DNA sequence: ACGGTTCTGCACCGAACGGTACTTAAGTAA
DNA sequence: TTACTTAAGTACCGTTCGGTGCAGAACCGT
């Protein structure tokens, strides 16, 4: 009951996510956010709480949408296929034809003032969590004999995550998908047989 | 002639650099900058011009100081030694015992609002320039027979740069030097003989 | 038609932002 | 000592920041 919401909350969140993606958490002002969302500040506060909670919801949406390749990659049958799918996914997501370059979780708040330490730490956890999941998948691969017994799952996961982050920066630098795919191929040359 | 400056301009710039390094360009406020520099805003404007020019000077100092490993690495005798020195240097610089984690040129302004687009572009150029120099060094290595004739210098340079950027993000994520050195070793497993 | 509930738009809040005018202090050269 | 030059400190500029109070508008069940 009550007056119905006059805008599509999903579409508004999607647009907010893109602004955060392009500008980072602190670089995205409420004026630009609500402008892109097509609503007033009052409506944003009523629907999402405040700027930080809007970012948290946008990050959730990012994880379920553009960054879903992380979860999908883990389901590949072999460790090598996982690594390849992960990095190819990173390339695709960080170079969307019509969207912002780079990765929301990297450029969201790599460095920031003290007031947004909470968001900074949230993103650190997000990034580290992806590494932990990758490590678990590689550990399984060792147990399954898919990776050599002497392979170090944590080390491999950290390497792949490092490549993923590097790809995000290179995408923000203007590299195109074809160039980044070459980088991925080069990175996997030393992958354990 | 005139009243002499009451502070060490080099030391003030060094401190400003560290604030930019930790906070990013937009995240570093004039209040925090001048506080760390130990001077007032008036003195800062008289000595450096404005915030953007202060950042440009800080970036210069960063290139000549913490990031000097880039130039030093290029002087190594072989392509492999160059790559190794570059990445080891990135690890050391992004994990200083008493200083901010990460790389100033990466977290300075990866994403930002429109007003600091100039700084954003400056950093994009800075990062790309490092890649170009690396590419030139690898091209020389091919000519010298140090790298196989079919090696692609641009591709190798992009790969090493990607690793460097990834290391910067991982450092900001809290990884310690020993862990990052392992990542470097893993990355070089597929390096052309 | 009604009260109850929720959303919207406008005006506004105090604080912090980058940047500056102006006065005073501290030095040099004559 | 005086005139000149430059730095330092204070108090302030207009703007933007994230965030709200309040009145009215749009829906519900009765």
Largest sheet of chain A: none
* Bulk shape of chain A: elongated
Instruction: Tell me the CATH architecture of the largest domain in chain A.
Output: Orthogonal Bundle
Largest interface: A-B, 50 and 50 residues
| Full CATH superfamily name of the largest domain in chain A | Tetracycline Repressor, domain 2
Oligomer: homodimer
Overall SS class of chain A: mainly alpha
Please give the radius of gyration of chain A in angstroms: 19 Å
Determine the N-to-C terminus distance of chain A.
Answer: 62 Å
The overall strand count of chain A is 0
Report the CATH C-level class of the largest domain in chain A. Mainly Alpha
**Global mean pLDDT of chain A:** 98
Using the coordinates shown, work out and report the CATH topology of the largest domain in chain A. Tetracycline Repressor, domain 2
Overview of the molecule:
The structure is a homodimer of 193-residue chains. Chain A folds into two domains: 9-62, Arc Repressor Mutant, subunit A (Orthogonal Bundle), CATH 1.10.10.60; 66-190, Tetracycline Repressor, domain 2 (Orthogonal Bundle). The first copy, chain A, is elongated and about 60 Å long. In chain A, 67% of the residues lie in helices and 0% in strands. With 193 residues, chain A is mainly alpha-helical. At the A-B interface, helix 1, helix 8, helix 9 and helix 10 of A face helix 1, helix 8, helix 9 and helix 10 of B. Chain A binds a DNA duplex (30 and 30 nucleotides) through helix 3.
């Amino acid at each position: 009951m009550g007056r119905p919401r006059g805008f599509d909350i999903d579409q508004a969140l999607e647009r907010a996510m893109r602004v955060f993606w392009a500008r980072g958490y602190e670089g995205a002002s409420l004026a630009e956010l609500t402008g892109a969302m097509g609503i007033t500040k009052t409506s944003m506060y009523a629907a999402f709480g405040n700027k930080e909670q809007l970012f948290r919801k946008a990050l959730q949406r990012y994880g379920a949408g553009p960054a879903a390749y992380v979860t999908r990659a883990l389901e590949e049958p072999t460790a090598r296929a996982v690594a390849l799918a992960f990095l190819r996914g990173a390339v695709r997501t960080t170079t969307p034809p019509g969207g912002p370059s780079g990765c929301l979780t990297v450029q969201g708040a790599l460095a920031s003032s003290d007031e947004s330490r909470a968001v900074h730490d949230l993103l650190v956890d997000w990034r580290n969590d992806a590494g932990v999941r990758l490590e678990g998948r590689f550990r399984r691969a060792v147990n399954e004999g898919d990776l050599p017994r002497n392979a170090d799952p944590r080390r491999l996961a950290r390497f792949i995550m490092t490549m993923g982050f590097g790809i995000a920066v290179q995408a923000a630098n203007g590299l195109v998908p074809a160039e980044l795919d070459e980088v991925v191929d080069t990175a996997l040359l030393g992958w354990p047989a």
